[in-house]
Amino acid sequence: MCELARPHDLEEGRLGLTCGPTLQMDSDDLQFNFNPLLEKQVGGDGPRQLALGYQWQVKGMVARGVELGAQGFGSVGTWNHWSTASQQEHRLGPAIFLKTNAFGGPIRFDAAWLVGVGTGSPRNTLRLRLEHEF
Fold it and tell me: What is the pLDDT of residues 44-88, one digit of tens each?
């Protein structure tokens, strides 16, 4: 997985590049994902160090097109020198995953309520994702 992110106004921020493998394991009832990620931000006042983060997810089907589970996201600092625990960011919480066919292709909607763990994390985060294949 690779993601390129840029701020709406390039003068206000940096370009970000995040890459890492997607590791997945399926059991009879559950699907597990873990993605270790490396992130680099460039631009602005010069390049930053390569940061180490992660994403994880576990989910299981409860009805056709409906899955329930949990997600977690975090960052530990630079890849070779982790930040102190109070400066690291870790978020986790329950998630719902919906899938249906409409408008000529599959539509997926994910929502998660993530709670920060530790003083370096945001207290609450609502994460929404909408995907339409065409």
Answer: 665 578 999 999 999 999 999 999 999 999 999 998 889 898 889
Strands (E), 1-134: 2-5, 15-19, 23-26, 30-42, 51-63, 66-78, 81-82, 89-102, 105-116, 124-132
**What integer pLDDT is reported at residue 10 of this predicted model?**
63
- Positive or negative, the Cα torsion across 10, 126, 49, 54? negative
Here the tokens at position 68 are 């329930």
Q: For the chain, give every domain's residue range.
A: 2-132
Q: How crowded is residue 98: how many other Cβ atoms within 10 Å of its Cβ?
A: 14
Sign of CA dihedral 127, 47, 82, 21: positive
Spatial CB neighbours of 54, under 8 Å, sequence gap ≥ 6: 34, 35, 36, 37, 72, 73, 74, 75, 76
- Asked whether the predicted pLDDT for residue 24 surpasses 90, the reply is yes
